[in-house]
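Section handout 9: paired folding examples.
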Amino acid sequence: MNFPKACILLMVVVLFSSYYSSDEAADYYIDQYKDLAIIEMYRTGIPASITLAQGLHESNYGRSPLALEAKNHFGIKCKKDWFGKTFYHKDDDYDQKGVLQPSCFRSYNTDIDSYVDHSNFLMSREHYSTLFLLSKFDYKGWAHGLKASGYATDPRYALKLISKIERYGLQQFDKALNPLLNEE
């Protein structure tokens, strides 16, 4: 039998979701991406805890179609300055009649590309510039600043990030040594 790609992806998501609780999925996601988040923190100043919390939240613990098919862990939409690959997915864009429309999201070749572009996206947008005045240890300030700067439309976005950081102890990674330096 030949199944369409979307059907196979849906089956993988359902199977993965049923075998792993959110906590198990979170542990797997954190283990898989913590070093990348720490490296990006050293490169850019964005707290690793924030990067991981956003990745967990925006990708549904790495299980969303956006993360699985487009390797987009942060829900970054195309915007006018994006000339790379795209992925269309229904999110929060409505037409003039109030009908939900597919949104254009950035698509990446690798998960690493998604993490690097997330950092570059925040660093290159004027409305996020005040975040970089905050300490990399101030995850609460970063979470509230992301929401205030318009990263997400959810009014509880900052609280959701903070909850994930505290639930999974992600703030420990803000104090981690750079894994590229092989420091003990």
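Moving on to protein 2 of 2.
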Amino acid sequence: GPLGFLAHPALSEESSHSSSGNYGLLDKIAALNWIRDNIAQFGGDPANVTIFGQSAGSQSVCSLMASPLAQGLFHKAIGQSASCLNPGPDPDPDGTTRGQKLVAELPGDGSLNAMRAASPDELLAAAEASGWANASRIVIDGWVLPDTQDSLFDQAQQAEVPLLLGSLSDEGNQLFPLNESLTREKLERYISRLGDTISPETLLSAYTDELADSPGLAQREIATDLFMAYGMRRWAEMHHRTGQPVYLYFMDHIPPAFRLYNPGNPDLKLPDGPRSGGAYHSGDLAFVFGNTRHVGHAWTEEDHELSRRMTGYWTNFAKTGDPNGAGLPAWKPYDPGTHATHLLNSEPETVGGVRREKLDLLAKLLDRG
């Protein structure tokens, strides 16, 4: 939120680096510096540090890989369900336009003193009123990030570390809005704004099932694939160029819904049952942390076994840079020729990519394939 990422010209002016925003990333970098200097006193190995995060945390992992200030502070990285390699130009890369709109919603005269006198509640209300959070919180400030993450990765300036990353099959469910009133004409205009190397009809030929339901569903699923499955594949592809091992996954195992991101519905009685939400955004967290026996309800032995495997993969990777180990189905490294992707379900296996037609068309639409 704005307490961690508000960029504003007045804040940049007082900075010795002419920078503002990205304070949340600076906090993480400070923590990594502390770990380097102190973790040996707690039995840790400062030469074997893994960072990992999910959703906005995954975008932070991706951005820390690109930041020169974080170089050498970690040795492996895991990203779950969000990349920082965004398609298309950002009209406000340094975030100051949005920052000024937010500050205009605060009490006072817009000065630094007035900004600092604002309460957290007032900051959050101003962020909501100004639409501040409608774009990436992480900004290109010229210091923490001297250039766009996309450009830094393209120039192979990111941290050269092993990478494990992936997404789930139904990320957009409840995460991205569903515009039921969207027309076919407006959907085609949306696609045309993404790119013009292929026609909207060509892309929609891969989304016929979604389009048969509604243009709004087709748009949501295109946006979901663009941000998640394609975004993670592209991150894997760009990092593979460094020669470091990359492991890409796709979780299509459907968990029961549990009260993590839906506090207003404590019983989570979905109309079609506890697993009718699909493999939704954040549905992997209980598995990764081995909490399927401790949170939520309606878990099965199949869920517990997948959790055991996932904690094994994640732990092995943190130790060695390779998720493979005794008692785990083999996970082949990613390669750009096949887009090798490990399916996380009751029978994990590595396959030659997922949603190939859709993702390949998105790559062509963005003029990257």
